[in-house]
Design brief:
The complex is a heterodimer. By secondary structure, chain A is an alpha+beta fold. Chain A contains 14 helices and 13 strands. In chain A, α12 runs antiparallel to α13. The chains are: A alpha+beta, B alpha/beta. Bound molecules: adenosine-5'-triphosphate and magnesium ion.
Chain lengths: 404, 230
């Protein structure tokens, strides 16, 4: 008896018990779809993060003040940044990054805002796409002009339009906002994300010259972070080391490990590792639900064997061997699991795209994941089908024939 | 053809042992038509099951077509049932979810006959029992007499040398009984050996030899005096 006969027979008996077969599949469907959704979202997230980092470039080094043992005098001054750019030939761009939480308002429309201070190099390093207007100039930076660059999402939230160039808004601490003019709008990295979650709990982002930020928020002209971009890949290491050296010389704090230089690609690896571990963990939890689904398959197959005892007796009487019966029932449980796996795959993909829209992640489904899901559900079918099938195959023909 | 020597069959259920067959010897020649009669519980079905290789003897020997089958394993017995024996049951024992045609094809699936040949042979077997229509219906959609004819078609489709029938007309009225017996006699005429259990003396008279049993033994074995030939 060949496989085709078996499959035909299995399909007809699955079809004869449509509702029950579907309920049996449900466990497998839920298991496989959650594994697929989790894994493809996790991989999609990794791709998104990698993309972001690659946009910033592999040549970028972040220098951070070691906050654990920092003294007031260790913080990076704006003059330090100028010196870095001037004295180290490998460095093409350098900007401090100052982040302050404040408020931005246009008329009566007030939003919580993350105000990011830096020089024009901040946009060059991040390789931002300019949609309208321009980024701020070196002179505006030097002179601490009241100008700002916002991203398209922020523009829409604050001004209800994308091209906000020339508009003015008030930025600063809640009680002491100052008026600044928008000179440019850049493309938002989280456009989709922002549209889906247009609410006041997600702050808007405002880029201003670091000098202006210090002025508006009455802060020192210091920063705890500097981004530098080397002129090419080979010089990234030396640029980072030279920069730390220069800072230590200027602050006279050599040997205290006051600064840490970190290539962003290294951070990317770390983030990817964390996301990977998290994805694996959640996928394993989801896979456990597959085992529960498998037990469901076994349960129903046992019921089915009991119900069909007489059928088994008849088949044996007319010449079915042990193997025939074994494969008949095994085929049934594998087909149930496989159909469940395929349906789960489909639901999982839909689920991943649905959740992905909410979270701003484009799911990534690799062929390996698909094959693994199908193989795994067949394996569940075999593993949990073997016991009921053996039970059927071992039935005594006479007793089975006498069963009512 | 069929030869059993001093066969016993003992059932043990817990502490109770029951001797269903108690030292039976029987010889059936090729082409014979034998009826087995006796009171309920005397061991007729037990004997038939052993002859049909569905069950094994407790002691004694069973030689089928000059081969000792008392020592064979389950799968070898399945092959013998598939190729050399055809069963007809009182309750027809058709598979309700399959069509008439599929039911008749089933023994050939286990024999490994290719699909096209299977279909042809099944239709041929069905025409031998005068059932050419309704072959794509399910067993629940046809009459009892038609169901038994399907069962006979299924029994003969692999061209077995022996047909074993356990009260084949037990569930049928007298008119249909006659139809079925006519088919069985025809099969016998064509050379098939037939062993049939029955309670009804009328039905036994269609055979040519009657074996009478009581309490697991054969008490009489004699030719039919006034045989009915249809
Ligand atoms: N599996 C079994 N376990 C225990 N006892 C059994 C088993 N099968 C049959 N018997 C007993 O063996 C005896 C013979 O049974 P069998 O079915 O052969 O009788 P029978 O002659 O066919 O009766 P009937 O005419 O009612 O069909 C009976 O007493 C029956 O109860
Ligand atoms: Mg009986």
């Amino acid at each position: 008896m060949n496989i085709l006969e078996n499959v035909k027979m299995a399909l007809s008996s699955i079809w004869a018990n449509k509702m029950r077969s579907f309920l049996t599949m449900l466990g497998i469907i839920i298991g496989i779809s959650s594994v697929i959704a989790v894994v493809s979202l996790g991989q999609g997230g990794q791709h998104t993060i990698t993309g972001e980092f690659e946009k910033i470039g592999t040549n970028t080094v972040a220098i951070n003040v070691n906050e654990n043992n920092a003294e007031q005098s260790d913080y990076i001054t704006f003059e330090d940044v100028r010196q870095l750019k001037e004295k180290i030939p490998y460095i093409r761009y350098a900007t401090q990054i100052v982040r302050v939480q404040g408020w931005a308002s246009y008329g009566t429309n007030t939003k919580m805002a993350i105000v990011v201070g830096g020089s024009g190099d901040m946009f060059r390093i991040e390789n931002n796409e300019i949609l309208y207007g321009r980024i701020f100039t070196d002179i505006e930076y030097e002179e601490g002009k009241a100008v700002a660059v916002i991203d398209s999402t922020t523009a829409k939230k604050l001004f209800r339009m994308e091209d906000a160039v020339g508009m003015t808004m008030d930025v600063g601490p809640k009680t002491a906002q100052k008026s600044v003019t928008i000179v440019g709008v850049i493309k938002s990295a989280y456009d989709m994300f922002a549209e889906m979650t247009d609410n006041d709990y997600i702050p808007v982002v405002v880029h201003m010259p670091a000098t202006t930020v210090s002025h508006v928020f009455s802060l020192d002209e210091t920063a705890s972070q500097v981004f530098i971009m080397a002129d090419n890949k080979e010089n990234v290491e030396s640029a980072g080391n030279l920069a730390v050296n220069l800072l230590e010389n200027r602050h006279g704090n050599r040997g205290r490990d006051a600064y840490k230089a970190e290539n962003l690609m290294k951070q990317l690896d770390q983030i990817n590792t964390v996301v990977g571990i998290f994805t694996t963990f959640v996928a394993v939890v989801a896979a456990i639900s597959l085992v529960v689904g498998g037990v469901g398959v076994m349960n129903i197959m046992l019921v089915s064997v009991t119900e069909r005892t007489r059928e088994i007796g008849i088949r044996k009487a007319i010449g079915a061997r042990t193997g025939h019966i074994l494969f008949q029932f095994l085929t049934e449980s594998v087909i149930i699991s496989c159909i469940g796996g395929i349906l789960g795959l489909i639901f999982g993909i839909f689920g991943a795209y649905g959740l992905g829209r909410l979270a701003g992640i484009t799911p990534h489904l690799s062929p390996g994941t698909v094959i693994l899901a199908i193989l795994f559900s067949s394996a569940v079918g075999i593993f949990f089908g073997i016991y009921p099938a053996r039970k059927a195959a071992m039935l005594d023909p006479i007793e089975a024939l006498r069963y009512e | 053809m069929i030869r059993i020597e001093n066969v016993t069959k003992v059932y043990k259920t817990g502490a109770i042992t029951l001797t269903a067959l108690n030292g039976i010897s029987l010889h059936i020649r090729p082409g014979e038509f034998v009826a087995v009669m006796g009171p309920s519980g005397c061991g007729k079905s037990t004997l038939l099951n052993i002859l049909g290789c569905l069950d094994r003897v407790t002691s004694g020997r069973y030689i089928l077509n000059s081969k000792d089958v008392s020592t064979l394993g389950g799968n070898e017995l399945a092959s013998i049932r598939n190729r050399e024996i055809g069963f007809i049951f009182q309750s027809f024992n058709l598979l309700p979810r399959m069509t008439v045609l599929e039911n008749v094809e089933l023994p050939m699936i286990y024999a490994g006959v290719p699909a096209r040949e299977r279909r042809e042979k099944a239709i041929e077997a069905l025409s031998r029992v005068d059932l050419a229509e309704r072959i794509r219906h399910r067993p629940t959609e046809i009459s009892g007499g038609q169901m038994q004819r399907v069962a006979i078609a299924r029994a003969i489709v692999n061209s077995p040398s022996i047909i074993l029938a356990d009260e084949p007309t037990g569930n049928l009225d007298s008119r249909v009984t006659e139809e079925i017996m006519k088919i069985i006699q025809k099969l016998n005429d064509e050379g098939t050996t037939i062993l049939m259990v029955t309670h009804e003396p009328d039905v036994a008279n269609y055979s040519e030899r009657i074996v009478r049993m009581r309490d697991g033994r054969i008490i009489d074995d004699s030719p039919v005096q006034n045989r009915i030939i249809l």
